[in-house]
Write a structure and sequence with these properties.
The protein has two domains: 146 residues, Thiol:disulfide interchange protein DsbD, N-terminal domain (Immunoglobulin-like, Sandwich); 99 residues, Immunoglobulin-like, CATH 2.60.40. 12% of the residues lie in helices and 45% in strands. The chain is built from two helices and 19 strands. The strands form five sheets. A five-stranded antiparallel beta sheet has the order 1-2-3-9-6. The longest helix has 25 residues. The chain starts with a helix and ends with a strand. It holds the Pfam family DsbD_N. This is Cytochrome C biogenesis protein. Keywords: Signal. It comes from Pseudolabrys taiwanensis.
Length: 278
């Protein structure tokens, strides 16, 4: 009995330590909001005290063989939708998108992420001196051979301090395309014919050479441009891609001037360029 009396306080103390550690780590991430084929949660990054922006991320994991979508899904798919209503001490929550991968199937080519993805979130608090509680509802789709809708709800409190999730969030942030000027990539875009759906030729000098992928977006989310395909005939040291001006919103003149945004992906690095098509 004497030994048991000694053991019980030790066990209770050990449980207290374990609970303390568990609570500390739980503060870095919400619980998983699970669906049949996927789950999502919020994670907190490492944040300094009294900074104008706090770092967070929306993590989605999927069963093997399933994928979800980028902000522009390509030939088919549904982009994710994020609703931060109900957040506390949050002025702005801006979702950032890591560079996507191309998925090809019988329905065409789509843009998104396999297995898992973290969407970084830049959070501007109303009062930088106080913690911010981020609450989000995410409507998204996951696809294998068929696409099914999914929904997740999560919340996490952001404040100054370290985070066990920071390395994963940093890796996702590094995959967000860096905004650069068209001149930095020597990127040009021009129409090469005058058809009803003019062909656009994009030419660029990839950083450090080597093959790249590019994706095209219009001025608003209503645009659904084809994925540019490699085109022959580029001068030495440059690459060419072409796509038809298809998928424009009703009433838009395909021969008129407008801004196009190109995401250029080379390995683990990605760039975002907005240029005028006159």
């Amino acid at each position: 009995m004497h030994n048991m009396r000694q053991i019980i306080p030790i066990l209770l103390a050990a449980c207290g330590v374990a609970a303390s550690v568990g609570n500390a780590r739980a503060g870095d991430a919400s619980t998983w909001s699970e669906d049949t084929r996927s789950a999502m949660r919020l994670i907190a990054g490492r944040n300094a005290k009294d900074v104008p922006q706090l770092r967070a991320g929306i993590e989605i994991k999927m069963k093997p063989g399933w994928h979800t979508y980028w902000r522009y899904p390509g030939d088919a798919g549904v982009p994710p939708r994020f609703d931060f209503a109900g957040s506390t001490n949050v002025k702005v929550a801006k979702v950032l998108y890591p560079a996507p991968q191309v998925h090809s199937d019988s329905g065409g080519q789509s843009l998104g992420y396999s297995d898992s993805v973290i969407f970084p979130v830049a959070v501007t608090p109303k009062d930088p001196g106080k913690p911010a509680t981020l609450r989000v509802k995410v409507d998204y789709a996951v696809c294998e051979k068929l696409c099914v809708p999914a929904e997740g709800n999560a919340e996490v409190t952001l404040s100054a301090g370290d985070s066990a999730q920071d390395s994963a969030l940093q890796a996702a942030e590094a995959r967000v395309p860096k905004k650069v000027a068209a001149a930095d990539l020597s990127l040009t875009a021009r129409r090469v014919d005058g058809g009803a759906k003019p062909l656009v030729m994009v030419e660029l000098a990839p950083p450090d050479g080597g093959p790249v992928q590019i994706f095209a977006e219009g001025p608003t989310p209503e645009w659904a441009l084809p994925i540019p395909q490699p085109a022959p005939g580029a001068p030495a040291g440059r690459q060419q891609f072409s796509f038809a001006l298809d998928g424009l919103p009703s009433g838009v003149d395909p021969k008129g001037p407008f801004d196009l945004t190109f995401t250029v992906v080379k390995g683990e690095r990605a760039y975002e360029v907005t240029t005028r098509l006159d």
